[in-house]
TrEMBL record:
This is AAA family ATPase. It comes from Blastococcus goldschmidtiae. Residues 103-135 are annotated as: Disordered. Keywords: ATP-binding, Nucleotide-binding. Residues 921-986 form the HTH luxR-type domain.
Length: 992
């Protein structure tokens, strides 16, 4: 695994700019200094490495000195000895100063007593200075003046950057010399950057007064290096882990959360995670070294605080630590002044970094930890207002008080449910379930039996988007139900299990469970259990094609819900009825759903409300009313977030639809932002994050491949996650098309179609998009192969894709009739046009139909179809029409940042000599640069941009730019065509 400081720098753009500005001021002849602070591991050294590299590129000479922690007895001037090593090794850099005997000890690495003033040195003519130098009354003036003269001599030859790292460890003599230099140097081309650890500067640290003095000097500024934002730490972690394959997002998020913006910590945690370590030993040692330097009383305070939690009240520390008041105050002052604990705004103490707390916890002996947990649990039991039920449960369990932990977990679960925190509710309920068999009289303590607790826990699991977990819990509930359980109770578990099973694509199993619920309770007299059983059974019967049985259940459930005033059940069955048979009048469906939304809200049933909102968005989306759909998705996702259920099934699908609709309307920035949500996304909602691939691939972003690999790694593990499979496959196909890999596009499309046939019996209509996209690659390949009269393979591939598309439509129509939505019709038009292109037919009328079909609001696919229409019109001699279509498509490509589409369009415009504003026409036979010739050679060998970059020692992004230039110069639509054109013109010399 690469080290973080070896990889390209992540983030720090503003800090890097500030430091380079310091360098630039020096290059312009004005001395400048930055005092760079930051916690250990936050990235100071990495940033300085970037600055020095860029300074060298600017023609600035760089000298670096390092301070070393040698305890109370340090070597004088050590960082300056280190800094001057290059000068000592190459005396020609400063011949005047290297001959000065005063500097000889520094050059030799053995600074000694002050030397006599050498002949010729006129100290009455001091160096230019920005302020009077500080008085030096201990015989060191000659040495300090000699060092200043050396610096000026070096700067006279070239601008100079002096870097002093870790000056918090600098000895007193070095600090004094630094003070002298910064006060003595004036308008010299010298920049100084001195770094130090902020977390090491306790109140009595000797560097503190020096820093306060230095910042008063002109040209001296302080720059604090704050922790990296979470997004940048995530990017760093993904880059560090990329060599071993894509990292699961759960791993990335765990490292990001624990590292708290510290790059070194992130690297260590990632490495430890690969070896199964909770906290890496090396990192533990680093953190504990600071703890072990403190007094025994201070260490006791830290142990209590670590066991208590990240934030702890003063009263708890005072009670549990056992320290006398005076000793406690002294110990707290010590840990706060040394930045181990900090005081929050509410007066509580918290660890400066969460990993420091982890290290202290890991160092505790088991018995000591149990005793502290017991003492804290006892305190919280006596003073309930001092903590939450969740805290009481945690400390009770950790002190082996299982009954206390059980009761407190249930109270904590109730509190979490009351404030709309289902994830925490699920955590506490599962903790209670784990203790059930170990706690005497658990049912009496809980106030319900185990089956009821399992059902309650399953509901929380569904709320946080864990349907598989909900299914497992409900099955366990059926197993533990008493033999004499009331039929209504047993029926409730069955129909609730059916509702969960349909969310994991087990329609047949869901139908069995809803049938079992119906068999347990009679229809007469009407009851709540029977009404919900019938409502659920109607949905499940429709899903397995038992329409007569479903219709009967609908009629029964609606009548009973009306009679009993069950608004939630009425709303649920109304949605089922309205959406059971595609092709119904959209206006009537929307009216029915509007009424269902009112009733769902009135009932307080959150899941049914979310189901209604999702269907309102879906109906408008399927009708091609994308802006109306966006209004509903915004409303639904906002409502779900307010209720704390944003990752339950329907809210997750609302977000998926929201991301997709934004992408279709051309709001690509908004679409990507919604896909890249910061919250932890459950695996079953991974398709929401994968939705971002639509934009990444469309823009030619190099990060698309890593996200495809991540999504593809989840598909086999999740098994039946059809939407994730579809989103990933569609993006893979588009990427393969743009990169000139037509066979991969075909293979992915057909393999996904086969998986879809296994998962869904009656709806394969999503294959239209996959087939239409893959046919683009096939048609490109066929056009190139046709020049060599060898297009048979691609003709057969096109036939296979078209046949799969036809079969998917036939299967759909067998069940749902002629009710295809507008997007499906648009893809059918695209397939017809691409199939003609595979056969070598121009067919502008087919491409005009595709453009019109996507005009319902799919901005990108409309532009892609315009590209082909322009190409077809050009082939028929209609240059004006071709230019008009290309201009419209080009405007969209530029606005979206769709680099591959823009490259293809500009290639067509140049090749056809079309007049399009903003596109400069160049000679088709333009000469390639030597680097472009190398890239073309690798393109011909089938290399990807990443592989080209690796072989030529350039970045993937740079390789992509070269490829785009080649396509533009050759007037090619894609990589495959570029290679064919180059071969025909004799531009391919040599082989890869």
């Amino acid at each position: 695994m690469p080290r973080w400081d070896d990889a390209p720098m992540v983030g720090r753009a503003s800090e890097l700019a500030a430091l380079l500005a310091c360098v630039d001021r020096a290059a312009a002849g004005r001395s400048s200094t930055v005092l760079l602070s930051g916690d250990a591991g936050v990235g100071k050294t990495r940033l300085l490495g970037e600055v020095t590299a860029r300074a060298v590129d600017r023609g600035v000479r760089v000298l670096t000195g390092h301070c070393v922690d040698l305890g109370d007895v340090g070597l004088p001037y050590l960082p300056f000895v280190d800094l001057l090593r290059p000068v000592a090794a190459e005396p020609g850099m400063a011949p005047g100063s290297t001959a000065d005997p005063v500097l000889a000890p520094l050059f030799a690495g053995r600074p000694g007593p002050p030397q006599p003033v050498p002949e010729g040195r006129d100290l009455s003519r001091p160096l230019p200075h920005r302020a009077a130098p500080p008085p030096v009354d201990d015989g060191r003036l000659q040495l300090f003046e000699a060092v200043a003269a050396l610096v000026c001599e070096l700067a006279g030859a070239a601008p100079l950057l002096l870097v002093l790292e870790d000056v918090h460890w600098a000895d007193r003599s070095s600090r004094d010399l630094l003070r002298y230099l910064l006060a003595r140097l004036a308008d010299e081309p010298v920049a100084v950057i001195a770094s130090y650890r902020a977390d090491d500067l306790h109140r009595r640290h000797p560097l503190r007064p020096l820093l306060a003095e230095l910042v008063r000097l002109p040209g001296v500024e302080r720059l604090e290096l704050s922790p990296l934002p979470d997004a940048e730490v995530g990017a760093l972690v993904r880059r560090l882990g990329s060599e071993a394959g894509p990292l699961p997002e759960s791993v990335v998020e765990d490292v990001v959360t624990r590292a708290e913006g510290n790059a070194f910590y992130a690297e260590e945690l990632l490495a430890a995670g690969r070896h199964g370590e909770a906290l890496p030993l090396a990192l533990t040692d680093v953190l504990l070294a600071r703890v072990e330097q403190r007094s025994p009383e201070a260490q006791q305070v830290l142990r209590v605080a670590a066991v208590a939690g990240r934030r702890v009240r003063h009263e708890l520390v005072a009670t549990v630590s056992g320290l006398a008041d005076g000793d406690l105050e002294t110990a707290l002052a010590e840990v706060v002044h040394h930045y181990l604990l900090v005081v929050s705004d509410d007066g509580r103490y918290r660890f400066r970094h969460a990993l420091l707390r982890e290290a202290v916890l890991a160092d505790l002996l088991p018995g000591e930890r149990v005793r502290l947990h017991a003492a804290i649990a006892s305190y919280l039991a006596r003073v309930p207002d001092a903590g939450t039920a969740a805290e009481r449960a945690h400390h009770a369990r950790a002190s082996n008080d299982l009954p206390g932990a059980f009761s407190a977990s249930l109270v904590a679960a109730s509190a979490a449910g009351g404030v709309g925190a289902p994830a925490e509710q699920l955590q506490h309920l599962e903790a209670a379930l784990a203790l059930w068999s170990a706690v005497p009289e658990a049912a009496e303590r809980a106030g319900r039996d185990q089956a009821a607790l399992l059902v309650e826990t399953a509901a929380a699991a569904r709320s946080v988007g864990e349907p598989a977990r909900a299914v497992a819990l409900l099955r366990s509930a059926l197993e533990v139900l008493p033999a004499d359980a009331a039929p209504e109770i047993r029926a409730r578990v069955h129909y609730t299990l059916a509702q969960a099973m349909v969310r994991v694509e087990d329609d047949a199993g869901a139908y069995r469970e809803s049938s079992a619920a119906m068999a347990l309770v009679p229809a007469d007299p009407p009851s709540k259990a029977r009404t919900w059983a019938a409502a659920t059974h109607a949905r499940m019967s429709y899903s397995v094609g038992r329409f007569d049985e479903a219709d009967a259940a609908v009629d029964e459930a609606l009548a009973a819900a009306d009679a009993l005033g069950f608004d939630g059940a009425w709303a649920d069955i109304a949605v089922t009825q309205a959406r059971a048979r595609p092709g119904a009048d959209p206006a009537a469906v929307l009216a029915r759903l509007d009424e269902a939304l009112i009733r769902a809200r009135r009932s307080g049933n959150v899941e049914v409300e979310m189901r209604v909102l999702f269907n309102l968005a879906t109906v408008t989306f399927e009708a091609g009313r994308i802006q109306d759909a966006l209004d509903w998705t915004r409303r639904g996702t906002r409502r779900a977030r307010d209720l704390g259920v944003e990752w339950s099934y329907y809210p997750a699908e609302l977000r998926h639809l929201h991301v997709t609709a934004l992408y279709m309307t051309g709001d690509w920035d908004g679409s990507l932002a919604e896909a890249d949500v910061l919250a932890r996304v459950p695996d079953m909602s991974a398709h929401v994050r994968a939705d971002g691939l639509l934009v990444l691939v469309g823009r030619g972003d190099p990060g698309a491949r890593a996200r495809i690999d991540w999504a593809r790694s989840l598909v086999p593990r999740l098994g039946s996650h059809v939407l994730l499979d579809f989103v990933t496959a569609g993006s893979e196909i588009d990427l393969a098309t743009w990169e000139g890999r037509p066979q991969q596009a075909v293979d992915v499309a057909l393999a996904t179609y086969r998986r879809l046939q296994r998962e869904w019996d009656d709806d394969h209509i999503g294959m239209l998009r996959l087939a239409g996209s893959a046919l683009t690659a096939v048609a490109d390949a066929a056009a190139v192969a046709r020049r060599a009269a060898d297009a048979d393979h691609w003709m057969r591939a096109g036939d296979d894709l078209a046949a799969a598309a036809r079969a998917s439509v036939e299967t759909y129509r067998e069940t749902y009739g002629d009710t295809l939505g507008v997007e499906a019709h648009a893809w059918l038009a695209r397939i017809a046009a691409e199939t003609a292109r595979v056969r070598g037919e121009v067919a502008p009328e087919l491409w005009r139909a595709a453009v019109d079909a996507f005009g319902f609001g799919h901005v990108y696919e409309e532009a892609r179809s315009r590209l082909r229409l322009a190409e077809a019109l050009l082939a028929t001699g209609d240059r004006a029409g071709a230019a008009a279509e290309a201009a419209l498509a080009h405007e969209v490509a530029v606005r979206l940042g769709a680099a591959p589409l823009r490259t293809a369009l500009e290639g067509l415009i140049r090749r056809g000599r079309l007049e399009v504003a903003g596109v400069r026409t160049v000679e088709v036979g333009a000469v390639l640069t030597p680097r472009e010739t190398e890239v073309l050679r690798l393109l011909a060998a089938g290399r990807t941009n990443r592989q080209i970059g690796a072989e030529l020692y350039i970045s993937e992004k740079t390789a992509s730019v070269h490829v785009s230039n080649i396509l533009a110069k050759l007037g090619a639509n894609g990589r495959t065509e570029a290679v064919a054109i180059a071969a025909a013109r004799g531009l391919l010399t040599g082989s890869a």
